[in-house]
Write a structure and sequence with these properties.
Blueprint (H helix, E strand, L loop, with lengths): L1 H13 L15 H6 L11 H4 L15 H48 L6 H9 L1
């Protein structure tokens, strides 16, 4: 029984003069905001999101709302992760430099162990330099 209803529903929509849009309404202005260096949507960050909605009449700030606390924790976690990854990259670069220096020292050591020219060859080298 369910198949005829589905077919009927699809056929009614197909022949209907009404058009349905499947795009997301949140994308309004997204391109403009990206071009001007702003967030994709107006609710990601900014004064409307980060500042409190109200304050006390005597000027005291309102207690932070749940969303503000959550966003603050997410940002702190992201900053910790960035610092950790940055330190990992720094350690990796330092290790790479040390390996390069060690390889250079080994190459110089190998060259120093090679046989030295003697006799006429040594005299030739001295006269050329």
């Amino acid at each position: 029984m369910a198949a005829p209803v589905r077919t009927l529903c699809c056929s009614v929509l197909r022949y209907s003069s009404r058009q349905f849009s499947t795009t997301c309404g949140v994308q309004a202005g997204e391109k403009w905001r990206k071009e001007h260096g702003l967030a994709r949507s107006g609710t990601e960050y900014g004064p409307l999101t980060d500042l409190p909605d109200w304050s006390f009449a005597d000027g005291r700030p309102a207690p932070p709302m749940k969303g503000q606390l959550r966003r603050r924790q997410e940002r702190e976690a992201l900053s910790r992760r960035i610092v950790m990854l940055n330190s990992e990259v720094d350690r990796g670069m330092e290790t790479w430099r040390e390996k390069q220096e060690e390889a250079k020292r080994m190459e110089e050591h190998k060259k120093s162990l090679l046989l030295k020219p003697k006799g006429k060859l040594l005299m030739k080298k001295k006269s050329q330099s």
